[in-house]
Give the backbone structure.
Amino acid sequence: MTTRRCGGATYITGMRPQDILLPVASGLCCKPGGFHIDPVRPVERAVITHGHSDHARPGHGAVLATQETLDMMRLRYGENFAGSTQAIRYGEEIRLGDTSVKFHPAGHVLGSAQIAVTCKDTCIVASGDYKDAPDPTCTPFELVPCDVFITEATFGLPVFRHGDAADEVKKLLASVALFPERAHLVGAYSLGKAQRVIALLRQAGYDAPIYLHGAMEKITEYYQSRGIALGELRPVMGMKKAALAGTITLAPPSATSDVWTRRFPDPVTAFASGWMRVRARARQRGIELPLVISDHADWDGLTATIAATGAGEIWVTHGQEDALVHWCQSKGLRAQPLDLVGYGDEEESETPLQDETEA
Amino acid sequence: MNRFAELLDRLAYEPGRNNKLRLITCYFREVGDPDRGYALAALTGALSFKHAKPALIRDLIASRTDEVLFGLSYDYVGDLSETVALMWPKAAMAAHNNPPPPTLTEVVTTLRTLGKTELPKQLERWLDELDETGRWALLKLVTGALRIGISARLAKTAAAALGDKDPHEVELIWPALSSPYLDLFAWLEGRGEKPVNRDPAPFRPVMLAHAIEDTDFAALDPADYIAEWKWDGIRVQAVAGRDERGQITARLYSRTGEDITGSFPDLVPSLRLAGAIDGELLILREGRVQSFNVLQQRLNRKIVSPKLIKEFPIHLRAYDLLGDDENDFRELPFIERRERLETFVKKLDDPRIDLSPTVPFASWETLTAARADPASAGADEDADAVEGVMLKRRDAPYLPGRPKGQWWKWKRDPHIIDAVLMYAQRGHGKRSSYYSDYTFGVWTEGETGDELVPVGKAYFGFTDEELLQIDRFVRRNTTEKFGPVRHVVHEADKGLVLEVAFEGLQRSPRHKSGVAMRFPRISRLRWDKPPREADRLETLEKMLKAEVEA
């Protein structure tokens, strides 16, 4: 984790933070800059943190985001997903209205960014979704000192401790060794999680071909085109049932309890997600092998990051706001939940596939 | 402890029996003595120490965490042990002062001797040393709530698999063993002699019957067989034997060899003659056999109170005698064992133990009639506790398992109703992509005319081909979805009629319909029948009335 200073960080200018960024129905609005961050409705000018569908939506006039995020939006929505686009690099600063906007790595998925908005002497960091844990598929999270830190709270309860993802992958490989006649089916969100699981498997020395559900082929190819080594990947479509014994297949979470699974020999259903920390959540989904691997910071990550930013004021969005706000207040920080609607955990919000779809 | 915790964790999610076996056997292979022995004890319920109360766990977590954060977390997780295991903040320790996590052996042996006042401090130390899963397993263990869906039988079978042995062999010597089972593992791994069961009242593997099919009779000669009523109780083996000092020891075993003596202390004084009786456990009130529903109220009780014993007087109906003080009778033909049994029961002369009467018959026709109407064929007032007839070859030795052609069971026809499929739910494991759990209902008069009321759930009885058909029907006729549950169309002219077979009915305040079925299963799909022609609740109520009055 590297540290970079992004603004003067004082409160003496008289500019209130909510004059810079304000939650409105269409998202987080920056009036002095004339833009919205991750708007949920079409707006004139959008600044987007990362490519997950609840943050990156189509139909905006102009979009400012990292090259990877723009590419992912193009993959998902087609060429005309926005009126115009502008790519920005990590560390690059752009002037928008009366503000300056700077992108920093968020460590969430490939191309994900925190957006630092500075107006006069006040710096607010909208971190989008982030994680401070190592991930071989994206640039590591960068700590950005600021006056106001806007944090997510997907896993904002002290029961969420994600541990080392490498240990979870070991668990998966041990199961593959113990049940060589069964197929292992790993539910993982198509953008980011799937590629991270594959990369972790490769790091653990697993060099057999890994099979992919049709819905994640395109995005995974994109990761490979950005130079992320994922080893040999094959589409699972068209494979003979018996040939899938002893193999690992990645699929969108909704597919792992679907008709689609009948092509696998006695599949072991795994799910890579931070939610797997809680047994009831795993059982509800009928998961046999929960793998606690998350794209989001866990409780320790959230609280450590908040403290390290040096921010005196914390805005908490999407997730378990209450607990995190309470924690901030108990540490003497000003904190409030930010009422933003339309964001969720991508695994929860992912639209289930149609039942009969053979994807 | 962490490795044992990993096993428990994995078992808790694994639905398949064979996969569970493989996981446990793999654990026994990888983990050495004495840890694996204590694990076997934990899985078979053979560990004994005073359990910690939930209040103690709450106090511990309160001393370490913020009250509000704990409250929010507990609300979210919903399980005390799990919440504490996940959010337990480790005490800040110097790097050089990081003790290794405790082994299972250390936990079990410490808990056995630990005083009540020392427990909190000890638990705190362990919680600091273990990881999330380890803490979860520890808390489940110390609170005595290790519910992971493993039977003692399954754990023993997994141990037997380690040495490629028949689980029966392990069952036979089990009473002679104690944790951490060093001698058992030595034998299983070929490093030691087979442990010998010196128990004066050992279990003997049970002989089971095949279900007879209509086509089987043609090849059978009635003269070769003796018939008995098939009683609707629980199959047990009651064994009494003398120890070295000549004292009688008595034990009651389930058909799998589990020692269930503790649940039926009122039968023990009656087992005062050395011998091994194979029989059926029943409840008798004023000389009349009660239905299985009544017996069920006495089963699975943790505490057997004097009131329970008085209200549900236990009785043993004897079928067979496997041995006495000196001899093993299992090689003898059934007819000779039966003679010895008759003498034995007469000599015992105890009101709690009687002989299962034979049903005389000369042809399959007379037996068919007896089966159809046990009351007129000698079962008299006990006819309602008869669930069919048993056929035993006169010359059959007592063989463990289910040998072909020796014993047959011929159950009474089940009750049948036509019900309408209302809701369907995904199955588990292999069936997780199928809608295989069905809630069905019958018609009743509602406020706005006839409506369907759910009367039961079934998830077997159909063939694989039928499962595919129902699954397709459910997917194409879903009216609403609630998580894993689908509402399936059920109107007077639209819907699927299921023929449901079941063994009995019971009143149940828990069900909206007021009735609960015993052993319901789908016996046929009635694609030909419109839902409006399915049965009505009144039909079930009539059946219920008949059962209660009988």
Notes: The two ends of chain B are 55 Å apart (CA to CA). Chain B touches chain A at residues 10, 12-15, 19, 22-23, 26, 65-66, 68-69, 72-73, 76-79, 82-83, 86-87, 89, 131-132, 426, 428-430, 432-433, 475, 483-484 (CB under 8 Å). The mean pLDDT of chain B is 90. The first strand of chain B starts at residue 210 and ends at 211.
